[in-house]
C-alpha cells in the first residue's frame, strides 16, 4: 500500500520526517481505498481481470519505489493515495472472481468472514514482516521484497490468465469524477486536521484553520452537486440510508473507544515497559489470534446460526469494554509481555466482529445495485479513516 506504518519509527529516523507525516501517508492509502468502492464494479465490467491485475501490480510497484526514494511528504501522500485506489481494485478483482466458490448462494455474511480474514490478517502479518525486515536489514527492504512479489504476480497473471474481455462490457460513461475529487479532498483534509491537529495546536494554527475551511467547502459543494446531478459520486439515497447512518455513528463510537490503541498502547509498551521494536511487533500475534477467534465466532454464530445484528454488535462492544477494563485495572510498570495477550486478543476479536456485522448490514440495507457501491465508500471512510483518525484525535 505504499508505506508500512509498522516501520514508521525507522522511516522517521532515516528520512528526517515526523510521525504525523508517516501516519498521513498511511491514511491517504486508506482514503484511496475507500474512494474506489464507488466505481470498482464499473472498472470490473470495463476491463478484463488480466488487465486489472497487471495494471494494479504495475502501479503498486511504482508507488513502493516512490515511497522508498522520496523525502517529499506531498509526493509520498499522493503515491500512497493512488496505491490505495489500485490496491482495492486488485483485491476486488481477486475476491469477486472467487466469491461463488466460497458461497454459491451469495451469503455475504460468509463472504465477509473470508474477506476480513485476508484483510485484517494480512495487516497484522505485514506489520510483523515490516518490523523484522527493518530490524534485520533496512526498512527499504520490505518495499523491495513487495516489488519482487508483485513482479512474480505479474508473471503468473501473464502465464495463467487469458486476455478475455468481460462479458458485461460497460464503458466508463456517466461517472462523476469531479465528485470523486471533491470527496477525496474532503477526506484528505479531514484526516489532515485529525493527524496534525495536536502538532499545530489545533485551530490556533493557520494550517488547521485553512484545512478545516477547505474540507467544509468541498463537502458543501458535494452536497450541492448531489442535489441536482443525475448520477453523483455519492447520492443522498446512500448518505441517508438508515443502515449507513447507524453504522457510521457506530464506527465513530466504537473506534473512539479503541483510540487507546493509537494514543496509549504503543507508548505504554515502548516507554513504560521498555519493549523494543521486535517485541512490539510480536504483540501483533496476539491481535492476529483474536482476529481468527472473532472470525470463527462470527462465521458460526452470525453467518450460520443467524444471530441478530444487535446481539453481535453488543458482543463486539463488550469485548472492547473488557479490553479497556483490563488496561485500567491491570496497568503497571512491571507487566510481562505474555500478560498483554488477553486485552489484545479481545481487541482483535471485537474489532473484526463489528467490521463484518456492520458491512453485512449495509449489503442488506435494501439499496439498489447502482447505489450500493456508494454506501460501501461511506462505510470504507467511516471504518478505515474516520474511526482511525477522529477517535485518537479526541482522546489524544
Q: Any chance you could write out the topology, listing elements then pairs?
A:
Layout: H1 8-15, H2 19-36, H3 40-46, H4 49-69, H5 73-97, H6 99-102, H7 108-136, H8 140-160, H9 177-200, H10 206-226, H11 236-239, H12 242-257, H13 260-272, H14 277-304, H15 309-330, H16 341-363, H17 372-395
What are the key terms here?
396 residues, single chain, mainly alpha, globular, 17 helices, 0% strand
How would you describe the overall organization of this protein?
The structure is a single chain. This protein has 396 residues and is mainly alpha-helical. The protein has 17 helices and no strands. 78% of the residues lie in helices and 0% in strands. The chain has helices at residues 8-15, 19-36, 40-46, 49-69, 73-97, 99-102, 108-136, 140-160, 177-200, 206-226, 236-239, 242-257, 260-272, 277-304, 309-330, 341-363, 372-395. Helix 9 packs parallel to helix 17 (372-395). It starts with 7 loop residues before the first helix and ends with a helix.
What is the distance, rounded to the nearest whole angstrom, between the alpha carbons of the first and last residues? 26 Å
State the order of secondary-structure elements, H for helix, E for strand: HHHHHHHHHHHHHHHHH
User: β content, as a range?
Assistant: under 5%
Distinct helical segment count: 17
The chain-level mean pLDDT equals 86
How would the global form be characterised? globular
State the secondary-structure class.
Answer: mainly alpha
What's the Cα radius of gyration? 21 Å
Helix fraction, binned, reads: over 70%
Q: How many β strands by DSSP?
A: 0
What is the makeup of the main sheet? Answer: none
Q: Pick out the low-confidence regions.
A: none
